[in-house]
UniProtKB/TrEMBL annotation:
<feature type="region of interest" description="Disordered">
    <location>
        <begin position="532"/>
        <end position="552"/>
    </location>
</feature>
<feature type="transmembrane region" description="Helical">
    <location>
        <begin position="68"/>
        <end position="101"/>
    </location>
</feature>
<feature type="transmembrane region" description="Helical">
    <location>
        <begin position="338"/>
        <end position="365"/>
    </location>
</feature>
<feature type="transmembrane region" description="Helical">
    <location>
        <begin position="121"/>
        <end position="146"/>
    </location>
</feature>
<feature type="transmembrane region" description="Helical">
    <location>
        <begin position="204"/>
        <end position="228"/>
    </location>
</feature>
<feature type="transmembrane region" description="Helical">
    <location>
        <begin position="429"/>
        <end position="450"/>
    </location>
</feature>
<protein>
    <recommendedName>
        <fullName>Transmembrane protein</fullName>
    </recommendedName>
</protein>
<feature type="transmembrane region" description="Helical">
    <location>
        <begin position="167"/>
        <end position="192"/>
    </location>
</feature>
<keyword id="KW-0472">Membrane</keyword>
<feature type="transmembrane region" description="Helical">
    <location>
        <begin position="394"/>
        <end position="417"/>
    </location>
</feature>
<keyword id="KW-1133">Transmembrane helix</keyword>
<feature type="transmembrane region" description="Helical">
    <location>
        <begin position="294"/>
        <end position="311"/>
    </location>
</feature>
<keyword id="KW-0812">Transmembrane</keyword>
């Protein structure tokens, strides 16, 4: 059984190699593999009662305990409070000390707010009301996260680690999405000409403030995901415990069982027999590259923000026009704002259209010239690149192409700043800081793009791994989609699935009639049970292929498709 690597959901990082595989040259190659079979997903899957983990979604929520609620409330309180202080600090760094000034000299706070043209009520609400509201948002994220967890399907994740990460992301996305929505909305309101939202300008220091807010929002997502996994709302055995059981079973029949529970075979071979750049491929390309490049924002913030804060502090003591003119000293013109927005859209758009374009061009290469020696999905990137030059070419061309697009967009932004005169108003130091930080982030972004394409290229081409394989875990669903687990026995589809499995267990065709099943069962002394009794039929077991040596790379098409779990 082939064990591939698969990164999983937004913000999960690199997939973990499964078993230590052999050298790519130690096995006979497999070429001209057929198109992998698309398996039913979502509502098309029939879950038997004994394959559902929890009695119902309500019982699952009741059994989770208070820990997940407390952690999500803390994350919401801290992240929203930090967002508020950073936003106020972007108006002027003096707002970072607003509570101290409010206690020591209230009149100074009033004059400062009047000088900036900001409403005292709005500023005080942002300063002191954001954190409590964030705690309430965290409680809402916990409730929505539990609802998302109830809809997960463990068998459709390539590894157990990916499934645990999906549990964490089920909570993190409800923490992250509202924060991103508020950041985007406030940025739009601030950037509009003649706005009355806190400020009437859009300056370097305001841009750096929004950059910091974006960093805080992005960091809150992995924090929430990690705390959610640590809370273990489903009370599942830890990954370390499962791995210890697998290692302890080396040399026994249970070793293969534990291995198939932790890892599944990636059936998505490259190059695909027929590739079509449809909207799903475009959307998946954007999600994949954006997910791996979020830390690029952190790099820009670390390089840019300290300079702008020191520069703004200096303006407070050197500018002659008063406090009200400080933030407007480096105000961007409307032309610069529009040009920056267009360049940003062009840069982000390259995330979506560049990988499908490269894939379409590479699929035009004749099969004899693709340099593919083996289409199997090997455990490591190094092994896959060694036997598949076609895949290596797609990864590198996309990486270098996106780096070129970034460089063009950054140079165009610097030219716009010069043409509009915004660069002269800000001074050459601002341009140097912007240029150095931008090109440094672009260089680091090349690493992120390479990792995204090398790890997740199969997801871009085919879609999720769960569309083509099923991991051999005891339960197929967390909770019933409707009603309770007991109610599933009354579902006609469940009864049909039980009858089908009973027929296959007796060696009959899966569409055998009740009379045929009863006749075969009478010869074996086993009475069929279609879900009407107290005991449910045990699911049909799948005989795994024999594990050869210390790896599970198939050596033939028969071994490649052995052990497939059908629903």
């Amino acid at each position: 059984m082939v064990q591939g690597t698969h990164p999983g959901r937004p913000g999960q990082g690199m997939g973990i190699p499964t078993l230590a595989g052999p050298s790519a040259q130690s096995l006979p190659p497999l070429l001209d593999l057929p198109e992998p079979e698309r398996l039913p997903t979502g509502d098309d899957v029939v879950d038997l009662p004994e394959e559902v983990l929890c009695e119902s979604a309500r019982s699952m929520r009741a059994a989770t305990g208070r820990k997940i609620w407390v952690w999500m409330a803390i994350v919401g309180f801290v992240s929203w409070g930090a967002l508020a202080m950073v936003f106020l600090g972007s108006l002027t760094p003096l707002f970072l000390f607003l509570p101290i000034f409010a206690i020591a000299e209230p009149s100074f706070v009033a004059s400062l707010l009047n000088g900036l043209g900001a409403s005292p009520g709005v500023v005080l609400f942002i300063a002191f009301g954001s954190a409590p509201l964030g705690a309430l948002a965290g409680l809402g994220a916990a409730a929505l996260g539990l609802r998302s967890v109830a809809r997960l399907r463990p068998r459709e994740y390539l590894t157990e680690k990916e499934f645990r990460r999906a549990i964490g992301w089920s909570f993190a996305k409800w923490i992250l999405c509202p924060e991103l929505a508020v950041i985007v909305l406030s940025m739009i309101l601030t950037a509009l000409p003649g706005n009355t939202f806190i400020l009437a300008d859009f300056s370097y220091i305001v841009v750096s403030g929004y950059l910091q807010m974006l960093v805080i929002a992005l960091l809150s997502a992995p924090l929430a995901a990690g705390l959610a996994r640590a809370s273990n709302p489903l009370k599942l055995p830890g990954l370390g415990e499962l791995e210890m059981r697998r290692q302890a079973a080396i040399g026994t029949d249970n070793y293969g069982h534990y291995t198939r529970v932790l890892f599944a075979q990636d059936r998505r071979h490259l190059p695909r027999n027929r590739f079509i750049a449809n909207p799903r491929v475009v959307a998946q390309s954007f999600r994949t590259i954006a997910r791996y490049r979020w830390w690029q924002v952190l790099t820009v913030a670390v390089l840019v923000v300290p300079f702008y804060y020191f520069a703004d502090f200096g303006q407070l003591f050197t500018f002659d026009g008063g406090v009200g003119d400080v933030s407007g000293a480096t105000d961007f013109s409307l032309t610069t704002r529009i040009a920056a927005l267009i360049l940003l859209i062009a840069w982000l758009g390259a995330f979506a259209w560049l990988p499908p374009l490269v894939l379409s061009l590479f699929h035009l290469i004749p099969p004899s010239k693709r340099g593919v020696r083996d289409q199997r999905t090997y455990p490591t990137i190094t092994e896959r690149m060694a036997v598949n030059r076609w895949e290596r070419g797609v990864v590198w061309v996309t990486t270098l192409g996106l780096a070129a697009v970034e460089a063009v967009c950054l140079i165009a932004l610097l030219v716009v700043l010069q043409v509009t005169g915004d660069a002269a108003l800000a001074g050459p130091v601002h341009l140097w800081v912007l240029g150095i930080s931008g090109f440094a982030a672009s260089a680091l972004g090349m690493i992120a793009t390479y990792r995204a394409m090398a790890i997740d290229l199969r997801t871009i081409v085919y879609g999720p791994a769960g569309w083509y394989m099923r991991r051999e875990v005891p339960f197929s669903a967390i909770a019933p989609q409707r009603g309770t687990r007991t109610d599933l026995a009354d579902d006609p589809r469940v009864r049909a699935a039980l009858r089908e499995r009973q027929a296959m267990k007796l060696g009959l065709p899966k569409d055998a009639t009740l009379e045929q099943i009863a006749k075969a069962a009478s010869r074996t002394g086993v009475l069929p049970d279609f879900g009407l009794g107290e005991e449910q039929v045990t699911p049909a077991t799948v005989e795994p292929p024999t594990i050869k040596g210390e790896h599970d790379i198939p050596e033939s098409l028969e071994e490649l498709h052995a052990g497939r779990l059908t629903v």
